[in-house]
Amino acid sequence: MIEYRSVGKTYDDGSPAVDDFSLVIPSHSTTVLVGSSGCGKTTLLRMVNRMVDPTHGQVLIDDVDIATRGPVELRRSIGYVMQQAGLLPHRRIVDNVATPLRLAGVPRREARERAMDALAKVGLGADLADKYPRQLSGGQQQRAGVARGLVADPNILLMDEPFGAVDPIVRADLQRQLQTLQHELGKTILFVTHDIEEAFLLGDQVVILRKGGVVAQAGSPAEILAAPADDFVRSFVGLDKGRRRLRIAELDGQRVVVDEHGRPAGVLDPTLDRT
Amino acid sequence: MTWARANSDRLVDLMLQHLWLSVVPVVVGFLLALPIGWWASRFARPRAVLLAAGGILYTLPSLPLLVIIPGLIGTSFLDPINVAIVLTLYALALFVRIVADAFAQVSAEVLDSATASGYSWWQRFGGVELPLAGPVLLAGVRVASVSTVSLVTVGALVGVSNLGSLFTEGFQRDFRTEITVGIVLVVILALVLDAVWVLLGRLLMPWTRLRGAG
Amino acid sequence: MSVFSEAFDWLSTSTNWHGPDGVPHRVLEHLGYTALTVVIASAIAIPLGLWIGHTGRLRGLAIAVTGALRALPTLGLLTLVVLWRGIGLTPPIAALVVLAIPPLLAGAYAGVESVDRRTVDAARGIGMTEWQVLTRVEVPLSLSLLLGGLRSAVLQVVATATVAAYIGLGGLGRYLLDGIAVRDYPQMLGGSLVVVVLALLLDGAFALLQRLSPT
C-alpha cells in the first residue's frame, strides 16, 4: 500500500507543482493518475521513489515513511518505466533489463537468465537480447523498458506515460500486454497518463487531477462515468461531447448501441450479461 | 634512407623522448580536465568563466610560453618539464571545453532513468555518464594528441631534445634529409598514436561501432 | 621573481624601443608578416571553403587535408623550406601560408554548412541565383564562424612567426632566438611578454568583432 499524506511540492524556482495531495493506493491493483500537463501527476509519481522529495507531507509505503529510507536502496526496490523507455544506449538490451538485478548484486549469469525470462514475458524474442536499444523499434524499446521494470520482481511498479511515444496500434498492443501481465503478477501499479481512455482501460482506481495536484475525482472508471463529480470531470472524461452518452436503437431487429449523434458504438449482446 | 638507417639508434631515442613528451601532457591534461569540465557542464556560471580562461590560455603562443614558464616556477630553462607543462596547459585548455560539451550532450532522460533504476552517484557517473560522454571525449583526445605531437618539436628551440632536434640540427648542417626524416617520423608518430586512441575507443566503447545515430 | 624584474628592466630600457631592433619596429614587422600571410591564405582558403560549403563537394578531402596539415610540425616545414628555397621573405611566408590555410578553410565551409538548409531553400524558392544565395544568404549568416576561422589563423600565424625567427625572419621572435643564442634571459622573457600581450590584444579585438557581427 502506498499512501500520500497531504504532500506538496514547490520547486526551487518557486513554482508550486502540487499543493496538498492525499491518496491511498491499495496493493495489488492499478491506480492511474490522469490529468493535463502541469497537473503535477509526474511529480506525484516521482515522490514514490524519491526522485522528488515533497516540500511538506509524507509518502508511506506499507506504513513506513519513505523519507527514512535511502533513495538509492528505495529505488532499487521499485520498478520504474518511463516514456521513451530510458534505456541506456551503450548497453545491450539484455544488459539493460538486467541492470536492476546487477545493482542489487545478483551474479552476472543469473541476472542474464532472469533478464531473458523478463524479455520473454513482455513478448521480446531472444534474438533481440544482444542488440543495442537503437537497433529496436520504439515499441520494442518500450517492451524492454517494461521488462526492466519487472525483472527484479518489485512489489511496486511506477509507470510514467510509458506508452505515450508509440503509435496507436502499438500502444493498444502494449496496453493489452500490460493487462495480461498484471492479471498474472498482481503488482501495485501507479500509472501516469494524460489519456483518459488509457486510464479507464488500465485503472482499477482512476484519479483525475486538476492543476496543482488537486483531486477532481477518484474512483473506479464506472463510478466516475456514472456520477461525475462536476463539470470539469464531465468534460475531461468526454461526457459533454456526446461520445460517451449512449442509447439503444433498433436496426433490422438487432439492438445497436449508438451515441447521441446516432453514430453506432457497438451492439447489445445479451450473452455478456453473465460476466 | 641510408642516413636514417645509420642513425636508427638515435632516431629511436628521439622518438621515445618525443612520445613521452606527447603522451604525458595529453593524459594529464585529460585527467585534470575531467572534473573541471564536468563541473562546467553542470553549472552555467563556472562554465562561462572556465571556457573563457581556457580560450585565453589556448591563445598564448607556445615559444614565449616556454620562456615564461621557467621564470614563473623557477625550473631550469633547459628542463624538459617546461615543455611538458606548457603542453599540458594547452591540452587542459582544449579539454575543458570538450569535456563540458561531452557531458552536456548526455541525454537527461537516460540519466533520469539510471537514477530511477537505483544507480548511486558514482555508479551513474562511471557506468552511464562517462561511457556516454566517451565518443566526444575520444574525438577530443585525438585532436589534442595530434596537435601535441606536432607542438613538441618547438621544444627543440629551447634545447629539449625530441624529433624536433632533427630540424634544428639539419638546419645548422644544411642537411635536408635529416629534416625530411624528422617530419616523416613526427607524422608517423601522430598517426600511430591516433590509431592507438581509436583502438582503445573501440575496445572501451563497443556500442559505437554500430551504424546510425547515437 | 627577480627574473621578471630584470625582464621589466629590459622592457623599460629606452634603447630597446628605438631603431630597427626596437620593440615598435619588431611589433610592426611581426604584424606585417602576419597580415601578409593571412591575406594570401584568405585569398586561397576562403573562396575554396565557401565553394566547398555551398556545393558540398570535396568536403571529405578538405577535412582530410586540414587534419593532415595539423599533424605537420611547423618547425620542420620552416627549416625545410628555407634549405630548399633559400633565405629571404618568400620561403618562410609560403610556409606560414600553408599553416594558416586549415583554420580559414574550416571556418569557411563549416560556416556555410551551419546555415539552416530551410533558409537556403527559401532563398532559392524566391528566385535567387546560386551566386545570390551564396553572397546574400550564406556568407552573411556564416560570418561568425568565418571570423572564428580568421581569428584562429591570425593567432596561429602570430605564434608561428615567432618560431620563424629561427630561420632568419625578423619580428618579435628575434628577441627570443637571439636571447637563447647568448643566454640573455631577461631579453627572452621581455620579448615573450610582448608576444603574449600582442596575441591577447589581437584575440580581444577579434572577440569584439565577433560580438559585433550580426550572426
TrEMBL record, chain A:
It comes from the Bacteria. InterPro entries: AAA+_ATPase (IPR003593), ABC_osmolyte_uptake_ATP-bind (IPR051921), ABC_transporter-like_ATP-bd (IPR003439), ABC_transporter-like_CS (IPR017871), P-loop_NTPase (IPR027417). Keywords: ATP-binding, Nucleotide-binding, Transport. Residues 2-237 form the ABC transporter domain. Its EC number is 7.6.2.9. SUPFAM superfamilies: P-loop containing nucleoside triphosphate hydrolases. Signal peptide: none annotated. Coiled coil: none annotated. GO terms for molecular function: ABC-type quaternary ammonium compound transporting activity; ATP binding; ATP hydrolysis activity. This is ABC-type quaternary amine transporter. It comes from Nocardioides terrae.
Automatic annotation (TrEMBL), chain B:
Its main location: membrane. Residues 15-197 form the ABC transmembrane type-1 domain. Keywords: Membrane, Transmembrane, Transmembrane helix, Transport. GO terms for cellular component: plasma membrane. It holds the Pfam family BPD_transp_1. GO terms for biological process: glycine betaine transport; transmembrane transport. It is a multi-pass membrane protein. It is found in: Cell membrane; Membrane. Gene3D superfamilies: MetI-like (1.10.3720.10). SUPFAM superfamilies: MetI-like (SSF161098). The chain crosses the membrane at residues 20-41, 48-69, 81-100, 132-159, 179-200. It comes from the Bacteria. PANTHER family: GLYCINE BETAINE/L-PROLINE TRANSPORT SYSTEM PERMEASE PROTEIN PROW (PTHR30177), OSMOPROTECTANT IMPORT PERMEASE PROTEIN OSMW (PTHR30177:SF4). Belongs to the binding-protein-dependent transport system permease family. This is Osmoprotectant transport system permease protein.
UniProtKB/TrEMBL annotation, chain C:
Residues 27-206 form the ABC transmembrane type-1 domain. It is found in: Cell membrane; Membrane. The chain crosses the membrane at residues 31-53, 60-87, 93-112, 157-177, 189-209. GO terms for cellular component: plasma membrane. Its main location: membrane. It comes from the Bacteria. It is a multi-pass membrane protein. The keyword Membrane applies. This is Osmoprotectant transport system permease protein. It comes from Nocardioides terrae. The lineage of its organism: Bacteria, Bacillati, Actinomycetota, Actinomycetes, Propionibacteriales.
